[in-house]
Amino acid sequence: MAIDSHMHINNLVLKNKEKSIEAINTNSQIEKVINVGLDLKTSEESLNISKLNPKFFSSVGIHPLCC
């Protein structure tokens, strides 16, 4: 069992982000993921991901050196 305490899946440049999210949701070794937002846009996306996926939780914030 693992908990990823700092992930930016909403910032990944992936052709199929949904496929990556589904892989996490179906992986029995991963219990929870905290997906971190860096600005308003990625924080909103992080919240949306966590609403739709039971293993995902959100951390909302504004990074002072980012974006």
What is this entry, summarized?
The chain has one domain (about 1-60). The chain has 2 helices and 3 strands, in the order βαβαβ.
What amount of the residues lies in strands?
25-35%
Oligomer class: single chain
SS class:
alpha/beta
String of helices and strands? EHEHE
Helix content: 25-40%
Distance between the termini: 33 Å
Task: Tell me about the largest β-sheet.
Answer: 3 strands, parallel
Number of domains: 1
Task: Describe this entry's structure for a reader.
This protein has 67 residues and is α/β, with parallel strands linked by helices. It has one domain (2-59). Helices cover 34% and strands 25% of the residues. It is built from two helices and three strands; from the N terminus they run E-H-E-H-E. It has helices at 17-26, 40-52; strands at residues 2-7, 30-36, 56-59. The chain has a three-stranded parallel β-sheet with strand order 1-2-3. Helix 1 (17-26) links the parallel strand 1 and strand 2 (30-36). The longest helix has 13 residues, at 40-52. The chain is globular. The termini are far apart. The mean pLDDT is 87.
Give descriptors for this structure.
alpha/beta; 34% helix; three-stranded parallel β-sheet; 3 strands; 67 residues; 25% strand; 2 helices; single chain
Blueprint (SSEs and pairs):
Layout: E1 2-7, H1 17-26, E2 30-36, H2 40-52, E3 56-59
Parallel strand pairs: 1-2, 2-3
